[in-house]
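Tutorial, part two.
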Amino acid sequence: MVREISAGGVVLRRLENAWYVAVIEPQKEAAPPSPGARSKSQKVLFALPKGLVDPGEKPDQTALREVREETGITAIPITKLADIKYVYVRTWGDGERVFKIVSFYLLRYHSGRIDDIAPEMRIEVKRALWIPLEEAAKKLSYSNERKVVRLAQKYLESHAEV
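Running the prediction step on this input gives:
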C-alpha cells in the first residue's frame, strides 16, 4: 500500500471581536476522496489548506507553505494539533489504496489577503475565505477536519495569550 504524508493548517484570525478560520473550496475534480465527507447534497465543499510534504521539508514547513499557496496568507505557527490517518482508494490513475497521514498545525494569521493566490493554484483551489470559527465544525466537509477545528477551539479556551 502506498503511503502519503501531508500537512496542513488551522489558521486563526481575530476579526470583529471573533475568531475566524481560513478555509478553501477545492476545485471539485482536484479534491481527493476523504472519509467523512458529507453524503448530503452539500453544494459547497469546504476544507482546510493542506498538501503533500515535499522531500527534505518538515511537516510544519509544509503546513506554512500550503497555507500560503492555497489561501494567499502567511501565518505563524503556534502548536501541532493532531495527526489524522485514513485509507482511501485513488479514483484517478492506478486506483491504488493509499494510507495517508495528515499533520495539522494551529497557526495564527500574520499577513496577506485571503484568496490572493497564484493563477496556477486555481487548478486546485476555487476560492479561499474566512469563516467564523464557531461555524467551522459545521461547515467543513470532512469529519477529521471538523475534529481538528474542535481541538483548535479547545486550545484557544485554555491559552488566552493566542
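The beta strands are 2-15, 18-26, 50-52, 73-89, 97-112, 125-132. In part three we will examine how such features are distributed along the chain.
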